[in-house]
Specification:
flavin adenine dinucleotide binding, alpha+beta, Acyl-CoA_Oxase/DH_mid-dom, Butyryl-Coa Dehydrogenase, subunit A, domain 1, Butyryl-CoA Dehydrogenase, subunit A, domain 2, 4-stranded antiparallel β-sheet, FAD, flavoprotein, oxidoreductase, 11 helices
């Protein structure tokens, strides 16, 4: 496992930091420090295009498709410096980190030419159409249907928790294309343009006042017959490949964001005197240790070159960071005390730490609940018997 970086890699870090800091102090200073995904959405689309113009949008992609062909170490460094500079989360995270790599891996050359340049350029924003009201973490239970009519797929059904669908241009959808099929069989992976009469987007307001995700309804929505990735019935395989990209180098950037949050909690504890409380100090120390352990675990996971074996680190990482951050949110509120219960801005515009607490309540749910993660660890990593499906 590689724990350090070479001089050349540290020089690359300096280049990243210099450019990002310059942007956040200059033309794009108005978006620095934004912690919600919907704030200043149009301005952040401009930021996506600024990243692309300077070849920072998708540095791990091949140069042919708008990337830099960056090494794994360089991708990790950029993700860390991106978070360290206080740059807000990418509104095209789904396109850059999930849709793009999926097309690169499973798509045809025609599909790569059709989608990748505009994703890399920040001109096409993608969202994800997986979860449904009765198929959240259980993706194999989706009921949205797709049927082929002539040269088009016709889709009917409902998706939920569709992050940023209301500002996206395209959505990739898992739909059941084989009548009577069950479980992972008979699913197809489709790329669909959102701006069409058959797709209805309805925002869902969150506990922190944001409306990041949506209900998405499909009523005879259509896409071209060649808009599927892979072949009909291969949707499960494509989806599993896509979800593997979710545990990529962005995890290190995510941890740098956690570092910023923990530093703000420590500063608040020192400012209001709660740092003198031995229990608070103990919890701060535990959070610090946990953050370091996550970093080493992520480095180990990313250093694994044998993808033929089940990677226990990859399976445990999500439950590890989600549980840690939920506890971090609780620590933040205990440090702030009553001051954390009062919003300083209008209409649920919370400061960073109260917003951390409210948002982190969902961390152990989205992307696979903690319960689902434990099943995966038990069955795939430890080889334990599968949990009984259904009731006799």
């Amino acid at each position: 496992m590689k724990l350090g970086f070479s001089k050349a890699e540290e020089d690359f870090r300096a280049e990243c930091a210099d450019w990002l800091d310059g942007q956040m102090a200059g033309e794009f200073s108005d978006i620095k420090g934004i912690t919600t995904l919907t704030a200043k959405a149009e301005r952040r689309k401009e930021w996506e295009q600024q990243l692309a113009a300077h070849k920072w949008s998708c540095i791990g992609w091949p140069e042919k498709w708008g990337g830099r062909g960056a090494t794994l170490a360089q991708q990790v460094i950029f993700a860390e410096e991106y978070a360290r500079a206080g740059v807000p989360g990418r509104v095209n995270h789904i396109g850059i980190e999930l849709a793009g790599p999926t097309i690169l891996t499973f798509g045809t050359e025609e599909q790569k030419a059709r989608f990748l340049p505009d994703i890399a350029a920040g001109k096409t924003i993608f969202c994800q159409g997986f979860s449904e009201p009765n198929a959240g973490s259980d993706l194999a239970s989706v009921r949205t249907k797709a049927r082929l009519e002539g040269d088009e797929w016709v889709v009917n059904g409902q998706k939920i928790w569709t992050s940023l669908a209301h500002i996206s241009d395209w959505i990739f959808v898992i739909a059941r294309s084989e009548e009577g099929s069950q479980g992972p069989k008979g699913l197809t992976f489709l790329m669909m343009e959102i701006d069409q009469p058959g797709i209805d987007i309805r925002p869902i307001e969150q506990i922190n006042g944001d409306a990041e995700f949506n209900e998405t309804f499909f009523t005879d929505a259509r896409c071209a017959a060649d808009s599927l990735i892979g072949a009909p019935g291969e949707g499960w395989k494509i989806a599993m490949g896509l979800l593997a990209f979710e545990r990529g180098v962005s995890t290190l950037g995510q941890q740098m964001g956690f570092r910023n949050e923990l530093d703000e909690i420590i500063a608040a504890a020192r400012a209001n005197g709660s740092a003198s409380d031995p229990l608070i100090r103990q919890r701060l120390a535990k959070a610090e240790i946990g953050l370091h352990l996550m970093r080493y675990g992520a480095l180990r996971m990313l250093s694994n070159s044998d993808h033929s074996k089940v990677d226990g680190a990859a399976l445990t990482y999500k439950i590890q960071w989600a549980s840690w951050r939920r506890s971090l949110g609780e620590l933040a509120m205990d440090v702030l005390g009553q001051a954390g219960e009062i919003g300083t801005g209008p209409d649920y515009e919370w400061d960073t730490l109260p917003n951390l607490f409210l948002y982190s309540r969902a961390d152990t749910i989205y992307g696979g609940t903690n319960q689902i993660q434990r099943n995966m660890i038990a069955e795939r990593a430890l080889g334990m018997p599968r949990e009984p499906r259904g009731v006799a």
